[in-house]
Amino acid sequence: MTAVDPVPGEAGSIADPRSYASGAFDDHRPPDAALLGDCVHCGFCLPTCPTYVLWGEEMDSPRGRLYLMKEGLDGAPLDDAMVEHWDNCLGCMSCVTACPSGVRYDTLIEQTRAQVERHHERPMREKALRGLVFALFPHPGRLRLLRGPIRALQRTGLDRALRRRVTKPGGLLERMAPHLAAMERLTPPLQPAERMPARIPAQGTRRATVAMITGCVQDAFFPEVNAATARVLAAEGCEVVVPAHQGCCGALSVHNGREEEAQRYARAMIDTFEKADAAHGLDGVDYVVINAAGCGSTLKDYTRLLADDPAYASRAAAFQGKVRDIAEVLDELGPAAERHPLPLTVAYHDACHLAHAQGVRAQPRRLLAGIPGLEVREIADPEICCGSAGVYSILHPEAAAELGRRKAAAIVDTGAEVLVTANPGCLLQVASSIPASADLGAHAMGMAHLVEVLDASIRGLAPDRLRSARSTDTS
Amino acid sequence: MERTAGRLGTTAVDGVPAGRVERPTSTTEVSALLRETAAAKETLVPCGARTKLTWGLPPDSADVLLDLSALRGVVEHQAGDLIVTARAGTPLREVQECVAATGQRLLVDETLPGATVGGTLATHASGPHRLVGGTMRDLLIGVTLVRADGVVAKAGGKVVKNVAGYDVGKLLVGSYGTLAVVTECTFRLHPVPAARRWLTARVGSAEEAQELTRAVVHAQVVPAAVEIALDPAGDGALSVLLEGRPDGVAGRAGVVRELWGGPAESGDAPEGWGAYPWDPSVTGEDRAVALKLAFRLSGLRDVLTEARGLRIRGSAGAGVLYAALGVEAGRGSHEEVAATVERLRGVCAHHHGSLVVLDAPGSLKPALDMWGPVPALGLMQRVKDEFDPDHRLSPGRFVGGI
Amino acid sequence: MIPVEPREAAIGRLTARARELLRPEGVITDRARLRTYECDGLAHYRVTPALVVIPDDATQLAQIVRACAELGVPYVARGSGTGLSGGALPHADGVLIVTSRLRAIKEVRVEDQRAVVEPGVVNLDVTRAATPYGYYYAPDPSSQQVCSIGGNVAENSGGAHCLKYGFTTHHVTGVEMVTPDGEVVRLGGDAPDTPGYDLLGAVVGSEGTLGVVTEVTLRLTRLPEKVVTVLAGFHSTDHAGAAVSAIIAAGVVPAAIEMMDALSIEAAEAAVQCHYPVGAGAVLVVELDGPSSDVDAEYADITRLCEENGAFEVRTATDAVERALIWKGRKSAFAAVGRISPDYIVQDGVIPRTALPEVLRRIAALAESSGESGVRVANVFHAGDGNLHPLVLFDDAVAGAGEAAEAVSRAILDLCIEHGGSITGEHGVGHDKAPSMARMFGEDDLDTMQLVRCAFDPDRISNPGKVFPTPRLCGERPGRRQGVHPLQEAGLAEVF
């Protein structure tokens, strides 16, 4: 007979909180045993997990990753295998949506990643890559500086040759270059170094005061998205406040286990926005609005991030209480400005950090449905990540490329003219994937942020502007 | 405990003389008989109403003709649970009469008058309703059997939903009495429909038959049966049976009318509904070659084309047809009949199906490959060896000499 | 013959062989990764397998099974690992063969009403592939968005709609499988009634003990013209049960009839805010589908019968969104009880539908008599076919509660057996209920089933230890049965 080891009295849960000894983790916020205990091993997360969809392996599913955490808590030492599978997670949180038992995988993987960063020695090359990523992406100024050289490289057609000769396959430049090049390609040329005004008055009756977060990638590469956000908010009767000297929200750091770094960013963000309104501080604004999904999910989790900091815990809660995605604010307020017809077919792509992490699915669709003449098409397998996932596409290029190819194919299948989403990372990823799937009969497709579509409708712009926006037609 | 044994009626099985006839009246008696005959390794051929006793190959020997007709009667009918348990020798008609009292029916057609529950199960015989209700295999939920070694066993149960243990019942369906002796069966029942209507269209070609069948099968009218009947010239009719509530049947009949363009309609079954095409009253022959053809639905046209010249009946909508190949004097040598069978078998195989010669005149059987190629035959032989290691039950009647 | 070679050496040789056959990632040997495979959907049984292999195609899978046969290494096949009976519980000295990468939908041929799929294909994906052509795959286990067709074949999975449409066994027309000696055989196919024994009928539901399927041909069903879902609130399960009986007696066969009692309604409300009728002691979810003229007529009957039997509120959903709202509460029920109880056991048993009121009363009495342990039972079931899913709720922190809950759970199975029902309607026997088989079947019954096992797998290397409480030594001829058949003893069957 098989040696079976039933845990007495336990019915279904994979974790038994009583049996833990410290194994892979230290005492500072190890993966929460009680949260792990909520997993009943039903497997409903499997088909929604991008890496399980790719590889079909238990270890690269949420259920498997939770199991590895449990092993770590049970006393198994932190080993390369565990770290590899946790690293492979895109953090798309699709599993959180799918889970019928309410397992907080998002919290658990963040807790685990912070432990990994503290205790796991990565190989030199990987360390260097991660160092470079975190020295670059959370810094809008540095990102902006990069734009010139990349463009020059691209224009001369040297980049491919350079990459081939100068770098080894899989080397740093090889990995970074496509991503940065996609960013550059999507950025309108000759964009003036436009600064957002500090205060934009509401049009008509003021319905709300909104402080706006401008983001890092959004600010450097998609300044027109920020401009459209401010215009739409103003048109809908919002007074818009844009605090100066905004830093990174800490999302990339949180997602990669760099907890202390994330906390630094979060404190700075709170400091900045507490001064948003000169007279009343944070109390003077109704909402803090963000138009990048990845940032939004982190901003809405500051309370937990700073829970152990007595100086910031309650301030974080106050700040978090005001954070809304742009779609939430606009949907909540309801339309005030007139929508002009926009005869256009769009495919709406759910950004993972909007749909899964923030549960914002209906609002963007309602907003699009409110535009006369606009047809919205759904994309097959909407719950599966496009592979962008913050800096995942740089750290795991093969997996990201394959997910991007699949997502691009699904998007192309809709036959829509414009792809609409609410996250800069998704736009970048899909843009770099669609040309690669030319054999799928890909046609040039415009790409726009949700607010750009609303902006075009409110301003009565011609639909062609969106059709050619960041067009995938690279010829 | 009463026991009847004796020489009753025919004592030959498809030309093979039976040593004696035993007519047990209970499962216990069947068990005792199998134990008694084990020592001498006597062979037994179970039978019911003997309506299909010549089907398959003649047995290698039949020391005992095991007549189960005394194992007769409905044991239990639970109307509220939609189940019935009957002894194997019970005529199907008797079961239907019993359950009809509460507005229910066993969704198995009586394809030959007098056929019993056990015989229908052993030969996996089915009629028009297979399209909506499946066959014995789909309706059998529990079985009592007696093994060759006399052991009495049950499988399944009396509830429709049950996944405890192997579905031994399915193995027995269509096993021609070669694995065990079935003494009692429990079936799932269905309500008798309040209304039924037949719509019949004339068909003059295989193409037309295929088109009309396709139209009604892929529509959303949930036909209870889609049957075809063709004479040797290829002329005949396609009928769809609609069953259900009066409003529902009327609504669906309207859809079929549109699809088929003015079919004849009736509240009564067309003549010969569900009968085999080799019925002597139709063919005028005592015993024609009886063929069962199965194929992918999309193969209907090709099969009908190839079968022109034969009398055809069957479930066009389910991919199962029956054909009668006349062998009256002067209508072909044994070789020619065998060649026709193989040609038809070829077209069925091309459409991922099979052809079985269910029955044929005794003189012809040796010239025919009755069962055709049987995939996984090795496994089947191993199953036979486990259940009946001495090959005492209906030896030689079934596939691969089983 | 099983070689006398020690198991460890055999595993070592099998591992070496697997490395030759599979891509490197497809052979898992390190402990951390192996442990992620140590349980399926029934997580309180855990066995770490000696080796996990993840083949890419049927050829590789067959090669692995052949190697197992040669080396005498036991194997267990696993799909998505969602089973609730421990059917895919690994073998400590064996290999776990994972089919999750065999997930191609090879053909969808609606003109033949067939789809051909690999075993790792997810159940719901078959429907997704067929829906554009107006067809779907009828069996719909609650886990249909994740469970695999291979697992469905092994367990003969059911679902809410099998009342009208039947189980997996009615919708699988053929398989290609690897037998335990490594031979690849085809059973059944596209066309009906393949000559010979219905081995396919035996293989479906055999829980992986007769081999591993590598390709499955499925019957596709035409989408119904109309679907209507009715939600009816009753004051008690007795009223709801009477309504079910009345519906059946009226000759209506709905696509599904589901019942939930007060406790499970409470859990569902807590989890998904399904807004079922306030104050209901039981709700029925009745789904009708088919041609619209029939559905309309049946709908009138159903609402009338519910009201006649004491329904105080009847709601109707006719579009997908409204239907989803009604089903949301029912479908969330299992996971939702986690919100009202720290621990629970999901039971799966079947009774004749007419025994429902009595069995429910006895279940309530069982919970009450469990005394201070605080065990409660929430009832969710497929009322149309008498398939109970009692959820036995307890708090493991209370001394003795776990044992009391298990005792109640066991007693519920005894009730099912006593009423002539079954110990499992859809979750399977697996590891969990193998000991209970001897309570439902006699020795001879089990022995007869194992004759089939001996024909397929005389060395018992395919999922050993599952389904049967004690293995039969193949080739052995057991003596005559002693004593009385358990069903006869229970007064449920006579020997004639």
From TrEMBL, chain A:
<comment type="function">
    <text>Component of a complex that catalyzes the oxidation of glycolate to glyoxylate.</text>
</comment>
<keyword id="KW-0249">Electron transport</keyword>
<keyword id="KW-0408">Iron</keyword>
<keyword id="KW-0004">4Fe-4S</keyword>
<keyword id="KW-0479">Metal-binding</keyword>
<feature type="domain" description="4Fe-4S ferredoxin-type">
    <location>
        <begin position="79"/>
        <end position="111"/>
    </location>
</feature>
<dbReference type="InterPro" id="IPR009051">
    <property type="entry name" value="Helical_ferredxn"/>
</dbReference>
<dbReference type="Pfam" id="PF13183">
    <property type="entry name" value="Fer4_8"/>
</dbReference>
<protein>
    <recommendedName>
        <fullName>Glycolate oxidase iron-sulfur subunit</fullName>
        <ecNumber>1.1.99.14</ecNumber>
    </recommendedName>
</protein>
<dbReference type="InterPro" id="IPR012257">
    <property type="entry name" value="Glc_ox_4Fe-4S"/>
</dbReference>
<keyword id="KW-0813">Transport</keyword>
<keyword id="KW-0411">Iron-sulfur</keyword>
<dbReference type="InterPro" id="IPR017900">
    <property type="entry name" value="4Fe4S_Fe_S_CS"/>
</dbReference>
<dbReference type="Pfam" id="PF02754">
    <property type="entry name" value="CCG"/>
</dbReference>
<dbReference type="InterPro" id="IPR004017">
    <property type="entry name" value="Cys_rich_dom"/>
</dbReference>
From TrEMBL, chain B:
<keyword id="KW-0285">Flavoprotein</keyword>
<dbReference type="InterPro" id="IPR016164">
    <property type="entry name" value="FAD-linked_Oxase-like_C"/>
</dbReference>
<keyword id="KW-0560">Oxidoreductase</keyword>
<dbReference type="Pfam" id="PF02913">
    <property type="entry name" value="FAD-oxidase_C"/>
</dbReference>
<protein>
    <submittedName>
        <fullName>FAD-binding oxidoreductase</fullName>
    </submittedName>
</protein>
<dbReference type="InterPro" id="IPR016169">
    <property type="entry name" value="FAD-bd_PCMH_sub2"/>
</dbReference>
<dbReference type="InterPro" id="IPR016166">
    <property type="entry name" value="FAD-bd_PCMH"/>
</dbReference>
<dbReference type="InterPro" id="IPR004113">
    <property type="entry name" value="FAD-bd_oxidored_4_C"/>
</dbReference>
<dbReference type="Pfam" id="PF01565">
    <property type="entry name" value="FAD_binding_4"/>
</dbReference>
<dbReference type="InterPro" id="IPR036318">
    <property type="entry name" value="FAD-bd_PCMH-like_sf"/>
</dbReference>
<feature type="domain" description="FAD-binding PCMH-type">
    <location>
        <begin position="13"/>
        <end position="192"/>
    </location>
</feature>
<dbReference type="InterPro" id="IPR006094">
    <property type="entry name" value="Oxid_FAD_bind_N"/>
</dbReference>
<feature type="region of interest" description="Disordered">
    <location>
        <begin position="1"/>
        <end position="26"/>
    </location>
</feature>
<keyword id="KW-0274">FAD</keyword>
From TrEMBL, chain C:
<dbReference type="InterPro" id="IPR016171">
    <property type="entry name" value="Vanillyl_alc_oxidase_C-sub2"/>
</dbReference>
<keyword id="KW-0285">Flavoprotein</keyword>
<dbReference type="InterPro" id="IPR006094">
    <property type="entry name" value="Oxid_FAD_bind_N"/>
</dbReference>
<dbReference type="Pfam" id="PF01565">
    <property type="entry name" value="FAD_binding_4"/>
</dbReference>
<dbReference type="InterPro" id="IPR004113">
    <property type="entry name" value="FAD-bd_oxidored_4_C"/>
</dbReference>
<keyword id="KW-0560">Oxidoreductase</keyword>
<dbReference type="InterPro" id="IPR036318">
    <property type="entry name" value="FAD-bd_PCMH-like_sf"/>
</dbReference>
<feature type="domain" description="FAD-binding PCMH-type">
    <location>
        <begin position="45"/>
        <end position="223"/>
    </location>
</feature>
<dbReference type="InterPro" id="IPR016164">
    <property type="entry name" value="FAD-linked_Oxase-like_C"/>
</dbReference>
<dbReference type="InterPro" id="IPR016169">
    <property type="entry name" value="FAD-bd_PCMH_sub2"/>
</dbReference>
<dbReference type="Pfam" id="PF02913">
    <property type="entry name" value="FAD-oxidase_C"/>
</dbReference>
<dbReference type="InterPro" id="IPR051914">
    <property type="entry name" value="FAD-linked_OxidoTrans_Type4"/>
</dbReference>
<protein>
    <submittedName>
        <fullName>FAD-linked oxidase C-terminal domain-containing protein</fullName>
    </submittedName>
</protein>
<keyword id="KW-0274">FAD</keyword>
<dbReference type="InterPro" id="IPR016166">
    <property type="entry name" value="FAD-bd_PCMH"/>
</dbReference>
